[in-house]
Design a protein that fits this description.
alpha/beta
């Protein structure tokens, strides 16, 4: 469900900071080799992720759902530019082990590979032990839509006050304003997540109509 025309989107991109060459090459590779290339964040959202990291200056970032590694590299770019500690990293979790070679090859082509830790496995299984080892104050959720609410419940109490959580695809092609079918567990998952975070007093929430919907949540003091 397009929210703006292709022509207007092109204008927006032309009037935003340029996408680095290695990311445009990654995007081309994704469209050649991957089955669902539209899943990657893309130029505009990638520049927003980089800017948010640069503004927020997180200690460590947790990303759920690596896919091509495009968004990971945008997060790492922001971290490299402004991180308060040289040890600050992006820890990114990808469930599909068949993507690992593609992801690692793209990380190796960038200047930010030392800022990235790739973990292969189910996020809901890896999150608890990871939270015991690393302090995260910036989280980007772009994994299984059915499990968004579960991820949120695993994370929220472990994050420090002021932590920023981003969740992608929270408009879900506009299906959020329709009645989902009983078998549409992905739409049901997004609806449950959106309703929960909007009503949770532990976070301030804004749902932005960027691409397929991007929700920003700040854990209150």
């Amino acid at each position: 469900m397009p929210f703006i025309s292709d022509k207007l989107e092109q204008y927006i991109e032309e009037n935003s900071s340029r996408e680095p060459l290695y990311l445009s090459e990654l995007r081309r590779e994704a469209y050649i080799h991957l089955l669902q290339p539209r899943m990657l964040s893309g130029h505009l959202q990638g520049r927003l992720l980089k800017m948010l990291v640069a503004l927020f200056r997180p200690r460590n970032i947790l990303e759920l759902g690596t896919y091509s590694g495009y968004s990971t590299l945008c997060l790492a770019e922001g971290l490299e530019a402004t991180a308060p500690s040289p040890q600050a990293k992006v820890y990114t979790i990808e469930v599909c082990d068949e993507m690992e070679d593609f992801i690692r090859n793209n990380f190796a082509k960038s200047a930010y590979s030392k800022r990235i830790e790739l973990l292969i496995g189910h996020a809901e299984e890896l999150i608890p032990s990871l939270l015991k080892e690393v302090l995260f104050d910036f989280v980007y959720i772009d994994a299984n839509k059915r499990h968004y609410l579960h991820y949120y419940h695993l994370l929220i109490e472990a994050l420090p006050p002021g932590a920023l959580i981003l969740a992608d695809n929270t408009l879900w092609d506009g299906k959020v304003i329709e009645v989902p079918t009983p078998t549409d567990s992905q739409t049901q998952g997004i609806l449950s997540f959106n309703q929960t975070v909007a009503q949770d007093p532990r976070v301030e929430t804004v749902l932005l109509p960027l691409r397929d919907g991007l929700t920003l949540m700040r854990k209150v003091e």
